[in-house]
Amino acid sequence: MIRLNDIEKLKGFRKVVTHRMEHFSRVVADSRQVQKGDIFVAVRGTRADGHKYISQVMDKGAEGVVCEYLPEGLEIPVTTIMVENSGEFLGWLAALSFGNPSAQMKVIGITGTNGKTTIATSLFNLFKAKEFTAGLISTTGIYVGNHSFSTVLTTPDALTLQKHLSLMQVNGVSHVFMEVSSHAAEQYRIAGITFAGGIFTNLSQDHLDYHKDMNAYLYAKKRFFDMIPSDGFVLINLDDRHAGVMVQNTSAKVKTYALKKIADFRPTVIEKQLDGTLVRFENKEIWIPFPGDFSVYNMTAVYAVAVMLGLNHEEIWKEISRLPQVPGRFEIIRSEKGPFAVVDYAHTPDALVNVLKTLHQVKSDKTKIFTVVGAGGNRDHSKRPRMARFAFDLSDQLILTSDNPRDEDPDDIIRDMLQGLEKNEQHNVICITDRAEAIKTGLRLADPGDIVLVAGKGHEAYQEINGVKHHFDDREFVRNYFADFKK
User: Fold this and answer.
1) Residue 110 in contact with residue 179, Cβ under 8 Å?
2) Is 195 left (phi over 0), alpha (psi -120 to 50) or beta?
3) Torsion over CA of 13, 101, 50 and 16, rounded to 10 degrees?
4) CATH number, domain 2-96
5) Which of 72, 183, 229, 399 is most buried, taking the most CB atoms under 10 A from its CB?
6) pTM, whole model, 2 decimals?
7) Domain 331-486: CATH superfamily, name plus number
8) Which pLDDT tens digit goes with each residue over 167-199?
9) CATH architecture observed for domain 100-320
10) How far is the C-alpha of 123 from the C-alpha of 323, rounded, in Å?
11) Strands 284-288 and 468-471, how do they pair?
């Protein structure tokens, strides 16, 4: 039960304007799910305004309504609570309804354009290896110890978040590692969560279909660090030029990591191999089981957070050196006689460049790189030509294909990508709309020892076409192809 007296103490509460029901059974933000006794929060979303459904939820038996304004001419014979921002208030109310579970655990948020999933998952695996009961909220799913739940969003809605945080708390979870997307910060999904710490990885072009410009994208990320309390910490990648802006208004303790600048945590890369990277840190040589500078950044962040959470320095590096592969993040799939494939989630220009540059650093002079990549539909159009440009420049053969076209014609997306190339360069690109055929073509063209990069979808086991998700897993397809090739 949720008491009105407690609701009145929440941040953003203004006043009760009609009636006074002292108790409510549940908090609901979806009008279709309202039942008798619920309190409904009318949120102004990107597609619909919950205020339009207030009369419907009253007919269903809602006994309370939270809103920013009263719809004109509507009489509301239930408890009506006026708030400053119903989206933000939903987060606080959701936390209250589940007993504020985050305050009883160490919740660490990770935000940035690239690296969120790898850092969050690696921290989760590291703490599990050290026999902590850990939780993970990630693009790849929600994990409570050894139990998993699927999720559609990188950072779920406020009610789903609090529900799973409550489940974690009940099951004895001590540390939670969660990705914080720019959408989640902008839409206040993380309001009501008590964060013990936050990590900023980097910032490059992404989600401009939603945020409109890079400045809006930056400040959506910054909002997360503004909410971390003074007894928490913020860890920033000092090599990213946006790092200083992120912590301008934070009251938390700030720590830094970098490869190029002097920072609190700064390793030196000694040797790069396809299977990992040898670094020197605090006069010790450390093996990181992932290739590329971007992996060194990620694992340095993992190390720094583990230190700040009280783990033993020596033990942390031991665990990092044997961390498992993060699904769909530079995931290497080998064949006995043919080429080998690298499946990666890279779906931004910067991420694609990082992966391709890493492949160049570890390949032999004779090794050719075949890149199979597309771009998502109903998303930022401006990054499409840039992705094609970078992929063309850093590959021996570029194959453009479909990603998740969603409601767009995949051929139109490919044409957008081709605009990043000169006319004479376009003739050297293979365009195959069918993703399976495109991957197969790359694997067929590659000689033994060559590398086929399959980029864009990583861990995703589906392809979204016209609102329908069809089963398709890049990793599964490549493994099946290699198995048939072996026969």
Assistant:
1) yes
2) beta
3) -30
4) 3.40.1390.10
5) 399
6) 0.91
7) Mur ligase, C-terminal domain (3.90.190.20)
8) 999 999 999 999 998 777 778 889 999 999 999
9) 3-Layer(aba) Sandwich (3.40)
10) 9
11) unpaired
